[in-house]
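Input set for joint prediction.
Command: fold jointly, output tokens.
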Amino acid sequence: MPDTDKTIISVQDVTKRFGSTVTAVDNVNLEIKEGEFFALLGPSGCGKTTLLRMIAGFETLTEGAILIDGDDVSSVEPTHRPVNMVFQSYAVFPHMTVEENVGYGLRVVGTPKAEIDSRVKEAIDLVRLSGLEQRKPNKLSGGQQQRVALARALVKKPKVLLLDEPLSALDAKLREAMQLELVRLQENVGITFIIVTHDQKEALSMANRIAVMGDGKILQIASPKTLYEYPSSSFVADFIGQVNLFDVTEQGIAHGELTLTVDELGAVVLPGVDTSRTYHKLALRPEKIGVARDKPSEIGLVAIPAKLVEDSYIGDQSHLYFETAGGKALSASVQNRDRDDHHLNKRGEKMWLYWHPAHFQPLSD
Amino acid sequence: MSRRRLNVNPLDYSRKLWMRSAMGFTFFFLYFPIISLIIFSFNDSKRNITWQGFTLKYYEKAFNNNQLHEAFANSLLIAGISTLTATVLGAMLGLALYRFRFPMQGPYEGIVHLPIVIPEICLAVAMVAFFATVEVPLGLVTITVSHIAFSIPFVAVVIRARMAGFNRSLEEASADLGASQWQTFWNVTFPYMKPGLVAGALLAFTLSLDDFVITFFTSGPGSTTFPIKIYSMVRFSVTPEVNAASTVLIVITLALTTLALWVQSKSQRNESNA
Ligand SMILES: Nc1ncnc2c1ncn2[C@@H]1O[C@H](COP(=O)(O)OP(=O)(O)OP(=O)(O)O)[C@@H](O)[C@H]1O
Ligand SMILES: [Mg+2]
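tokens >
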């Protein structure tokens, strides 16, 4: 968690164009606090790498300014910026040993030998590479090369560590382990981390705050929980996890509370929602939906009958795909609590889907 | 028929008689002249026609032939200087072509590589004409300059090919870690280029060492090189002494090529795919 409220990186109205046609980053504003674990999340080609490379100094800005620790760095070479980067391809120097790789950033600036030795040892211990100091990179696994890249950047004690999809080349198991390890590392060293990823699970599990990007723009900046439970647009709702979207046909106010009308569901009352805006969609996460044979009797629930069309078993959960009488597709996910009864349902069976209207997230787009 | 074909492993073709004989003939035509040249360099006879017995005296004779000595020294000097210069210039050219995008790059690249495809005789005539225009007397200097000129594109091509496999983020990582551009070049780029430099330099060296046409045109009195000397000896008669001298040249070239291959395979083993 952030220790202070100090802004360490401030991205102000930054735009990046390649040529006259490609706008990779479009008028982005960001404030990143000291000690934060910040994630830039978005689909491929949305400009995440470009934004990160502008912070590192490898790309010039077309418009706007970037401040690191209060200083405008527009005219500062990457060499002299107090940030370090872990590259997607690791970019570990192939002709140097682990030790030489880690010490490189200290050697080139003329750090005394004794200090290099102790800091290198510390960094190697930190990423748990002890014993491999004399290995060449081609004798290391992907995960180990990753750690070399991390140690090499951390040994410089940067104000901010930039990581461009650092885990994308690792297999699923190792990836999960490294996610935990990165979080542990970040807590230990207290350095601000900015990580780029297109894996929403990775971002949710690691970051304190996430900026979702789409098409060069920042769509929402929020904590993982807010992002998932209260997405601000259907793009964000859809990109982070799975979502059911309902079209709003009518908007009204009853007894001072927002009432939205949805096909097949009728009027839905949403207490405490801003009534001044216009809403076009309602979002509902699949796991918020309950599934039952009989219509639930509890008052205040939204309930709709639907036919099961597909049941996909993924171990801990089952994703159930339904179709309503009006042809609307809905998905629900249920925990498989019992070993032998993971689905009580047969394809084609009529079931009741129900949920509390408070789980609806109204969307304006 | 077609079914049988499908079952044949590509390497199995070497089991077929026609394939084997084709291979045999190829090797025979390629290497028979060279092997007989080497064998007859040990022949104890004034002429090369029949085998008279083993001797090393023609090697002795060749080693004691002062003119041959001088020609060999000239060749080494020219090859040494031209290799050094051409490697540095060619490497810079190859690196620039790999690194930078500039207007007219395509045509520029084409022109730069032209000397590789232009017939050597044309290049030779052009050189002579050029040296006449700038009024430089023909001799060791003009030979060396010509050799540098035609070696540069070869080195550039080798370096360019080598750099095509270079991971640009290595340079970015180096800069990111606080290295100056100069430090980045010597610590990161240069070690990667090294096998290409060695290969390019050896190529330039062998090209220079056995060049005949351009050397012949750009040489002047007293600037005989090894190939030209051998040519003039052959014009009198093909004695085992010529064989001996040529064998020495073959051995040197072979040794250098082996060295180049060894350096390359060693560096490949050292590299990760990162
Ligand atoms: N050097 C460049 N020249 C021209 N266009 C570029 C350049 N670099 C990036 N782009 C374009 O800018 C856009 C954003 O690229 P960027 O690499 O930042 O995407 P990304 O979000 O990192 O994607 P990914 O998840 O695939 O890595 C893309 O449309 C890309 O084609
Ligand atoms: Mg990217």
